[in-house]
Every structure is written in structure tokens, then in C-alpha cells.
Amino acid sequence: MSTPPLSGAGMPPGAFSGTQAQAAREVNTASLCRIGQETVQDIVFRTMEIFQLLRNMQLPNGVTYHTGTYQDRLGKLQEHLRQLSILFRKLRLVYDKCNENCAGLDPVPIEQLIPYVEEDGSKHDDRSAASQLRFASEERREIMEVNKLYKYHHFEVQILIHYRKEILWVLLLEIKKMLLFAKKNN
Q1: Distance (Å, rounded) from C-alpha 15 to C-alpha 186?
Q2: 3-state class of 44 per DSSP?
Q3: Residue 6: what pLDDT?
């Protein structure tokens, strides 16, 4: 996660050669954002290392431990803190440079940056969205009405089928009675 150094971020003023110094001054805003993102990642990484060191350090609770180990861990912790402060200074420089580069730009609402395309290829506006919403709600209402009618007719058909079954059973019973009566009389 190394980031290219910027002048003033812990580097001596003459550290760059002539063309490199000019290129560093003329870095575009997108490159600065990338450098800023990498710097933030380095800051997070260093902070995680600091917390790891702090978690592994023993608390001074009266237990004797090696002063050499303690001094070594303390030195690592101080080095990480020094590097963290350098990274924060570098991030501040990148932030200031980005703000300087973007100072002359007119702010554009985020909604205008997202392209909306309808089927006819025209841009999306609120009136068409409202009409689409109205159309969709009317269509939903019509579907619900048709659904209710379907359920009602389905119920009626079930009742008719039930009555026909009852009529058929009654007719079958009457036919059986007539056949039995005819058999008895013969």
C-alpha cells in the first residue's frame, strides 16, 4: 500500500528532480483522489497495527517483565504514531490541493449526474414519473377489480356445480327407487 510521495509530506524540499517536481505539482484531481484513497488505507492499516501493539502490551500492574521487550514495543508504537502523523499531514495536503483544483467548478446537483433514459430516449422528468405512477395505480386498481370479479364468478360456478351434483344424486336415487319398484311388481 505504498503511495507516491508529495512534496511537503515529510520529504525534504529538494527530494524531487526538476521534471518530477513539476509533474507532482500538475497532478490532476482524479490522481489526487486516488492518492488520498491510498493514504486513507495506509492510515487505517497503521491504526490497526497500533491497536494490535497496544493489545499485546502488558499493563503495568506490578508484574515484572523484560524492559528490553517493553522498550522495543514502545519504540515500534512511537514509530507507528510518527508515521501516522505524517500520513495525516499528507492527507491534509491532498485534501487542500483537491479543494484548490475544484474551487472554480460550479456545484452540480447529484440528480443531474445520473442519466435517466426512457423508452423514447428523452430525459426523465417529474411529470412523466407522476403520470407513470398514476397509470400504474390505475392499472393496479383495474387488475384488483378483475380479480374480485373472477373470484365472485368462480364462487358462483362452484355453487352451480354443487347444485347440479345434488340434483344428479336425487335423480339417481329416484331412478333406483323406480327400478326397485318395477322389480317388485314384476
Answers
A1: 130
A2: helix
A3: 47
